[in-house]
Design a protein that fits this description.
Elements (H helix, E strand, L loop, with lengths): L3 E2 L8 H4 L8 E4 L2 E4 L6 H18 L5 E4 L4 E2 L13 E2 L3 E4 L5 E2 L2 E3 L4 E5 L5 H15 L3 E6 L4 E8 L2 E2 L3 E4 L3 E3 L7 E3 L13
Parallel strand pairs: 5-9, 10-11
Antiparallel strand pairs: 1-3, 2-3, 4-7, 5-6, 7-10, 8-9, 11-12, 12-13, 12-14, 15-16
Protein name: Putative restriction endonuclease domain-containing protein
InterPro entries: Nuclease_put_TT1808, Restrct_endonuc-II-like, Uma2
Length: 198
């Protein structure tokens, strides 16, 4: 299970994050630190590569850029200064269309699209803490991928809130409201006839 670091009276921020060992992966959500262990499963990584390849090919030569974890995304809220940001996450995949949000440290500000691939150790965080964080930060589309059920649930921002989720399975095709002419055939994403193991 993912570990949580918490101390009474302490809110972790990006300035703390920068001092932690580089060989360890962490996220900070609302000042609480979460360890990014254990490593993702093979099927998780296979789905990540398939989606990353589709977005990379589609966005080639365009303004928007796609990145995969590990890649730091700082989400400053309420005019927080960069080093005081209490939200630093490493989504599985992000797409950023505003180049000014990108720097050598990663992304500073809200990506246009975030994809999280569910693992047992991250289930609660992806469905609860990150859902509300991405909504509050203004992520236009939040995709949650369920490898075991071979489904993708998409939340789209409407009037600063995520509307009714759109659910897609292997028989479906996804068209994003952000990217023109992008169609994803889900039968090509999910690895069929292989046991789901985390």
């Amino acid at each position: 299970m993912a570990k949580t670091i918490s101390k009474t009276g302490i809110v972790f921020r990006y300035k703390h994050y920068l001092t932690w060992p580089e060989d360890q992966r962490w996220e900070i959500i609302d000042g609480v630190a979460f360890s990014m262990t254990p490593a993702p499963s093979r099927i998780h990584q296979k789905i990540l590569v398939e989606l990353l390849t589709i977005f990379h090919n589609h966005l080639r030569g365009k303004t928007c850029e796609v990145y995969a974890a590990p890649f730091d995304v700082r989400l400053p809220l309420a005019n927080e200064r960069d080093e005081e940001t209490s939200n630093v996450v490493q989504p599985d995949i992000i797409v950023v269309c505003d180049p000014s949000k990108l720097d050598e440290k990663g992304c500073n500000g809200s990506p246009d699209l975030v994809i999280e691939i569910i693992s047992p150790s991250t289930l609660r965080r992806d469905l609860k803490e990150k859902f509300y964080l991405y909504e509050k930060a203004g992520v236009l589309e939040y995709w949650i991928v369920y490898p075991e059920n071979e489904t993708i649930v998409i939340h789209k921002l409407v009037d600063h809130k995520y509307g009714r989720p759109e659910v897609y399975s292997t028989e479906d095709r996804i068209t994003s409201s952000i990217f023109d002419a992008l169609t994803i055939n889900l039968s090509e994403i999910f690895v069929r006839h292989l046991p789901f193991q985390e």
